[in-house]
Design goal:
By secondary structure, the chain is of the alpha/beta class. The protein has two domains: 171 residues, Rossmann fold; 135 residues, 2-Layer Sandwich (Dihydrodipicolinate Reductase, domain 2), CATH 3.30.360.10. The chain contains eleven helices and 14 strands. The strands form three sheets. Strands 3-2-1-4-5-6-14 form a seven-stranded parallel sheet, sandwiched between helices. The protein has a four-stranded mixed sheet with strand order 8-9-10-11.
């Protein structure tokens, strides 16, 4: 069986975990890792694969089936993906929820024109949680969904903080309200505000001499990320960040309370994982498999998890998958 040739664009937390996921997958091979850093200083773990300067990506146009875009949503993906999708099928984890419809259309026009497939927002939320929300709403149309994140580390929000002027490093935890969780489990269909449902707790390493008051203000007022939440900003040392916040656990819940006839129902999906980037990378790779299959079928353009059949994610044949799971 010919393996799907994957490229990794960006070699941070997500990129390195995508590499591990590829190593665990019999139907993928890693063709190249692209970096904006000096490739000489980037050591790729996969034997025989070297880091390549990002500006040389077009040299690999015929050597890569799917490019996994591993940059951040705040400043990387909106610039990189519209360029890369001109020449490669791509999968990304774009997670700025409010901007997804516009981003989907923008990328879709380019992908369609160049006969490529772009699977966007393919993480666990947006991504798997989005799929579950749509499923629950279809099963119980007379009801209300609520999604809760954490407690755990948000990669997108942590990345957004690190782009604030004067920030050397940072990590952000999303913490759901236990009170609201319990109310939902007891059948509530209230319209909870964003602020009622979650708190965001930030740990920031400031650059020497940076204005901490200004940094805290910039974080708390950041649209699409922190402005609508109770946000706590704590300044700590780089040593404390490494010691106390070196792991990246996450998880969350999708809940729906609804009715069918006279009966009330509560349905819920809960996910907990010890490594946010590792799990996200596994989701990305499954959708890279789907992107390649769609490309082979000529189904070009931008896609989300809502557009793609679950069977496209599996390395197994339709026959085997049907026999084992139905």
């Amino acid at each position: 069986m010919d393996r799907i040739r994957a490229g990794i664009y960006g070699y941070g937390n997500i990129g390195k975990n995508v590499e591990r996921a590829i190593a665990d997958s019999d139907d993928f091979s890693l063709a190249a890792v692209f970096t904006r850093r000096d490739p000489v200083n980037v050591k790729v773990a996969t034997k025989g694969v070297k880091a390549v300067a990002a500006d040389r990506v077009l040299e690999f146009k015929d050597k890569i089936d799917v490019m996994l875009m591993c940059g951040g949503s705040a400043t990387d993906l909106p610039v990189q993906v519209p360029e890369i999708v001109k020449d490669f099928n791509i999968v990304d984890t774009f997670d700025t929820h409010a901007d997804i419809p516009r981003y989907l259309d923008t990328v879709g026009v380019i992908a369609e024109k160049n006969k490529k497939v772009a699977v966007i927002s393919a993480g666990w939320d947006p991504g798997l949680f989005s799929m579950i929300k749509a499923l629950f709403a279809s099963l119980l149309p007379n009801g209300k969904n609520q999604a809760f994140w954490g407690p755990g580390v948000s990669q997108g929000h942590s990345d957004a903080i690190r782009h604030v002027k004067g920030v050397a490093d940072a990590i952000q935890y999303t913490v759901p309200s236990e009170k609201v969780l319990e109310e939902m489990r007891n059948g509530s269909t209230a319209d909870y505000t964003t602020k009622q449902k979650h708190k965001r707790v930030c740990y920031v390493v400031a650059e020497e001499g940076a204005d901490k008051n200004r940094i805290a203000k910039d974080i708390k007022e950041m649209p699409n990320y922190f402005a609508d939440y109770d946000t706590e900003v704590n300044f700590i040392s780089a040593a404390e960040l490494k010691k106390e916040h070196g792991t990246m656990p996450h998880g969350g819940h999708v809940m729906r309370n609804g009715k069918t006839g006279d009966d009330d129902y509560h349905i819920e999906l809960t996910m907990n994982f010890s490594s946010n980037p590792a799990f996200t990378s596994s989701v990305m790779l499954a959708y890279a498999r789907a992107a390649f299959r769609l490309y082979k079928e000529g189904c070009f353009g931008s896609k989300t998890v809502l557009d793609i059949s679950v069977s496209y994610l599996s390395p197994k044949s339709r026959k085997d998958l049907t026999a084992e799971t139905l």
